[in-house]
Amino acid sequence: DIKGFAFDLDGVIADSARLHSKAWHQTADTVGTTWTPELAENLKGVSRMDSLEMILKAGGHENEYTQAQKEELATAKNTQYLELVKTLTPDDVLPGMKAFLDELKANGYKMSVASASKNAPTILKQLKVMDYFEGIVDPAKLHAGKPDPEIFSLAADVLGLAPANVAGLEDSGAGIQSINAAGELSIGIGSELSEAAVRFDRTDEVSLAAIKAKLA
Ligand code: B16
Ligand code: MG
């Protein structure tokens, strides 16, 4: 049975995707790639450098920049993103998630964070939800990002639990694949997450009772 929960951050706990999009949109303008909703969607859960590569490729600019220039572009994006992150408050926790964290804590479940974001600690502090978590997987130490199972396997290690006793929450397809490959129970939030064992349309639908009902 489930004894712990591993949370994705962007799209599950925080509405930070719109801030990533705002900052990446500027990068796209800089390199001459047309910004589209599809591009924005495809960047969810993808690491910073891989996101930049996708933006360059979308406009056919992948061979126009040296590695050093790419790093400059990624750093500029992150500087702008962190300016936007400063505006986050506890009100920016996605609907229902604070209540779900309280419910899990009250019922003795352990929680960890499995986010591709190197800024996760900053965001969790800004949202004032840091104290709920036993730990955060450091994405800088990963050999492979989502959909590789590594990040969600490490999120179970942080909890001191076997993967079979852990449920992972994700809003991206790559994240759901990572959870499934780690041997954990996948809970998808959003549409088009057909590989999720349990799926909700919105964050405010997630509760222990609702998860149990869907598994029954
Ligand atoms: P950073 P998640 C992901 O967070 C975002 O969805 C993705 O858009 C972002 O590029 C990635 O983190 C890396 O973020 O630039 O802050 O290190 O969904 O895995 O919580
Ligand atoms: Mg996400």
UniProtKB/TrEMBL annotation:
<feature type="binding site">
    <location>
        <position position="170"/>
    </location>
    <ligand>
        <name>Mg(2+)</name>
    </ligand>
</feature>
<dbReference type="InterPro" id="IPR051600">
    <property type="entry name" value="Beta-PGM-like"/>
</dbReference>
<dbReference type="GO" id="GO:0008801">
    <property type="term" value="F:beta-phosphoglucomutase activity"/>
</dbReference>
<dbReference type="InterPro" id="IPR006439">
    <property type="entry name" value="HAD-SF_hydro_IA"/>
</dbReference>
<feature type="binding site">
    <location>
        <begin position="115"/>
        <end position="119"/>
    </location>
    <ligand>
        <name>substrate</name>
    </ligand>
</feature>
<keyword id="KW-0119">Carbohydrate metabolism</keyword>
<feature type="binding site">
    <location>
        <begin position="8"/>
        <end position="10"/>
    </location>
    <ligand>
        <name>substrate</name>
    </ligand>
</feature>
<feature type="binding site">
    <location>
        <position position="10"/>
    </location>
    <ligand>
        <name>Mg(2+)</name>
    </ligand>
</feature>
<feature type="binding site">
    <location>
        <position position="171"/>
    </location>
    <ligand>
        <name>Mg(2+)</name>
    </ligand>
</feature>
<dbReference type="GO" id="GO:0005975">
    <property type="term" value="P:carbohydrate metabolic process"/>
</dbReference>
<dbReference type="Pfam" id="PF00702">
    <property type="entry name" value="Hydrolase"/>
</dbReference>
<feature type="binding site">
    <location>
        <begin position="43"/>
        <end position="48"/>
    </location>
    <ligand>
        <name>substrate</name>
    </ligand>
</feature>
<dbReference type="InterPro" id="IPR023214">
    <property type="entry name" value="HAD_sf"/>
</dbReference>
<feature type="site" description="Important for catalytic activity and assists the phosphoryl transfer reaction to Asp8 by balancing charge and orienting the reacting groups">
    <location>
        <position position="115"/>
    </location>
</feature>
<feature type="binding site">
    <location>
        <position position="51"/>
    </location>
    <ligand>
        <name>substrate</name>
    </ligand>
</feature>
<feature type="binding site">
    <location>
        <position position="8"/>
    </location>
    <ligand>
        <name>Mg(2+)</name>
    </ligand>
</feature>
<dbReference type="InterPro" id="IPR010972">
    <property type="entry name" value="Beta-PGM"/>
</dbReference>
<keyword id="KW-0597">Phosphoprotein</keyword>
<keyword id="KW-0413">Isomerase</keyword>
<feature type="binding site">
    <location>
        <position position="146"/>
    </location>
    <ligand>
        <name>substrate</name>
    </ligand>
</feature>
<protein>
    <recommendedName>
        <fullName>Beta-phosphoglucomutase</fullName>
        <ecNumber>5.4.2.6</ecNumber>
    </recommendedName>
</protein>
<feature type="binding site">
    <location>
        <position position="24"/>
    </location>
    <ligand>
        <name>substrate</name>
    </ligand>
</feature>
<feature type="site" description="Important for catalytic activity and assists the phosphoryl transfer reaction to Asp8 by balancing charge and orienting the reacting groups">
    <location>
        <position position="146"/>
    </location>
</feature>
<keyword id="KW-0479">Metal-binding</keyword>
<feature type="active site" description="Proton donor/acceptor">
    <location>
        <position position="10"/>
    </location>
</feature>
<dbReference type="InterPro" id="IPR036412">
    <property type="entry name" value="HAD-like_sf"/>
</dbReference>
<dbReference type="GO" id="GO:0000287">
    <property type="term" value="F:magnesium ion binding"/>
</dbReference>
<dbReference type="InterPro" id="IPR023198">
    <property type="entry name" value="PGP-like_dom2"/>
</dbReference>
<keyword id="KW-0460">Magnesium</keyword>
<feature type="active site" description="Nucleophile">
    <location>
        <position position="8"/>
    </location>
</feature>
<dbReference type="InterPro" id="IPR010976">
    <property type="entry name" value="B-phosphoglucomutase_hydrolase"/>
</dbReference>
<comment type="similarity">
    <text>Belongs to the HAD-like hydrolase superfamily. CbbY/CbbZ/Gph/YieH family.</text>
</comment>
<feature type="binding site">
    <location>
        <position position="77"/>
    </location>
    <ligand>
        <name>substrate</name>
    </ligand>
</feature>
